[in-house]
Amino acid sequence: MSSPILSSSPVARIDEEELPFKLPPGPRSTDKPSWSYAALIGQAILASPQKKLSLNQIYIYISLAYPYYKRDAAGWRNSIRHNLSLNGSFVKMQREAGEKGKGSLWGIKEEDLECFQDGNF
Question: Which part of the chain engages DNA, per the record (predicted)?
Fold first, then answer.
């Protein structure tokens, strides 16, 4: 099965039923959100039933939930990678045997979950 989002084109068809996370209800503003990058990452991960996402899935969640962050813009993506690598609340996880996809997945340390309540950090 192909990914529901393969292009950075704004007209790319998105089937929300195929996304590995649940998007927050709209409407979605193009204004810059007040959340920190760590909070945005936490929102993405916690929106997944398995509470883990790939880096690309985190990018997709943020760009869909917060259209201010364009899918093809590099600056905010660098900040996401930086936060994942340096924030001790995020943990890199290996994929389960037979789990589809490339690369590692990212989750939140169980003891830090309360830090992300209500989308905060």
Answer: 32-121
Please state, for a pLDDT cut of 70, what percent of the chain lies above it: 88
Question: Whole-model pTM?
Answer: 0.83
Kindly indicate the confidence band of residue 27, based on its pLDDT and cuts at 50, 70 and 90: confident
Which has more confidence, 14 or 4?
A: 14
Work out the number of other CB atoms within 10 angstroms of the CB of residue 59.
20
Question: Is 10 part of any domain?
Answer: no
75 within a domain of the structure (yes/no): yes
Tokens of 47: 């929106």
Domain interval for residue 68: 34-119
Q: 15 in a domain, yes or no?
A: no
Mean pLDDT of the chain, nearest integer: 87
Burial profile 80-89: b = 16 or more Cβ within 10 angstroms, e = fewer: beebbeebeb
> Which CATH number do you get for residue 95?
1.10.10.10
CB distance 95 to 105 below 8 Å: yes
Report which of 95, 98, 116, 94 is spatially closest to residue 45, judged by C-alpha positions: 116
